[in-house]
Design brief:
By secondary structure, the chain is of the alpha+beta class. It folds into 2 domains: 68 residues; 53 residues, no CATH class. The protein is built from 2 helices and 6 strands. It is rod-shaped, with a radius of gyration of 40 Å. Bound molecules: zinc ion (ZN).
Length: 145
């Protein structure tokens, strides 16, 4: 009669169960790997969503800051900067699209928007009185003689 030691019995059981346990472990590892890959792609999607939301919040904050610095004073909007200076802003572009398009000085308090091409006349605009070209003289001036 052969005597088996307890450790040999254990080793026999371990050897018999090693292969099925290894297979079970491989299946578990494959499932865990699958979940890891899935959670990584979810994480990337969440990071992208977070970035997009941050961009939206930043844009809305910039819009609010801009609105706080645009003031209506007929006939223009004025864009104030932090240094207390102001720039004339096109009313049409601001009212339609909230674009703070700065007006360009055309002289004689006439201002042009390079975006919509509108002209605006400031309070210091003086209507020219001297006629030039074919209307230099009034067409009925000959009657005065
Ligand atoms: Zn404009």
């Amino acid at each position: 009669m052969q005597r088996l030691y307890l450790s040999e019995i254990h080793m026999g059981i371990v050897e018999k169960l090693k292969k099925p346990f290894t297979l079970v472990l491989r299946v578990i590892n494959a499932k865990l790997y699958e979940k890891l890959v899935s959670s990584q792609s979810e994480n990337l999607a969440l990071q992208e969503e977070k970035r997009a939301l941050r961009d939206t919040v930043r844009q809305q904050k910039e819009k609010l800051d801009l609105r706080a610095n645009v003031v209506w004073e007929k006939p223009f909007y004025w864009l104030k900067d932090g240094a207390g200076k102001s720039e004339r802003v096109c009313p049409k572009c601001w009212d339609s699209d909230e674009k703070p398009i700065r007006l360009q000085d055309k002289g004689n308090d006439v201002w042009e928007c390079l975006n919509c091409k509108n002209l605006y006349y400031g309070p210091n605009y003086v209507r020219p009185t001297n006629r030039q070209g074919p209307w230099q003289n009034h067409p009925f001036d000959f009657l005065k003689k």
